[in-house]
Amino acid sequence: MRKYVCIAVAVAFMSGLQAAESEYVAPLTAFGAPDLQGFWSIATQTNLERAERFNGQLVISREEASRIEAMVAAGFERSNEPSDPDREAPAAGQNVGGYNTFWMDPGNRLAEVSGEIRTSIIVDPADGRLPYSDQGRANYAAAMQRRQSYDGPEARPLGERCMVGFGSSGGPPKLPVLYNNLTQIVQTEDHVVLMAEMNHDARIVRLNGAHRDPPLYPWLGDSIGYWQGDTLVVETTNFHPQQNLRSSLDHRFYGSSSMRVVERFTRVAEDTILYQFTVEDPENYSQPWSGELPMVDSGETVFEYACHEGNYALPGILAGARVAEVEGLDYAPTDPGLRQ
Question: How many Å is the Cα radius of gyration of the chain?
Fold first, then answer.
């Protein structure tokens, strides 16, 4: 006998309904819940927001997707070529690059949901763009500007400080990053653990519980969950105030501490979980916004993420800023890419 708590939710995605109506039946755990356990990858070349070149199209043909994926593969191949030992030194402030391609694993395919190849993770609004209010856009711009401060470690991004993973890899919502895109899911009767490979961020979801009162504001927020049919629904709010800016690759957004994120995890095939989410944040957005992403069993397991051990980057960055101050130099990068 399956033991679920069926609670109505305000938002249901059409593709979620299609998944529920499919012939696939998820396996069950020993305690009767749909089994989501395993290692799941969210790596994809599909961006959070839709690029203008797609003219508002959410779905593209396989032929067009193949062309895009081939271009991405060619770019990675070029970037993995040996460096010219006789090249000139870079100009001051020029982007000198970071990891070579060997260390990168952002995914080599566009996201496919319900047989459709997607041009953006965002599915609502229909234009695939974040619906910032004027205040929200100002908050985002101010947060990006604060990242240019080198006065102390507190001003540096959380991933740089090894507090949580870069971007929003641990969620919610969960979004891809440059590498370490796996999530391990572990279930018990009363809890679900979502452990992101990036920084080993473990989000513990209390099933059939309530948000803490008075609220706490932990990293990754305060998550509660319940089963709605074969779908695990997770509701999260009360985020740490330093985690309001999520920025990695082309997946960037700003959220307040009172932002509310509703996630839905539905196993739709032996090797796929359909991941859906809705973000509600009136402080920054003119309407809720929603996204969809497949979580795929890649056959891999998580690697150790040893962020602090032997990490001299942060003291080196701050020491360089102090030297620049003494020498009266402008140490803000001139390359816009470095500012992100």
Answer: 21
Structural contact between residues 284 and 135, judged by C-beta atoms closer than 8 angstroms: yes
Coil/strand/helix, residue 47? strand
Phi, psi of 64 (to 5 degrees): -65, -40
What beta strand segments (E) does the chain contain? 38-41, 59-60, 112-113, 116-118, 122-124, 182-187, 191-196, 201-207, 222-228, 231-237, 245-248, 251-254, 260-269, 272-280, 289-296
Alpha carbons within 13 angstroms on the beta-carbon side of residue 44 total 26
List pLDDT tens digits, range 90-131: 887 787 777 778 888 889 999 999 999 999 999 999 999 999
CA distance 45 to 176: 9
Tell me if 233 sits within 8 A of 262, measured CB to CB: yes
Q: Please identify which residue in the block is written with the tokens 């990168």.
A: 104
Kindly report whether the global pTM for this prediction surpasses the value 0.70.
Answer: yes
Residue 123 has which token pair? 């599915």
User: Which residue in this structure is represented by tokens 């513990």?
Assistant: 204
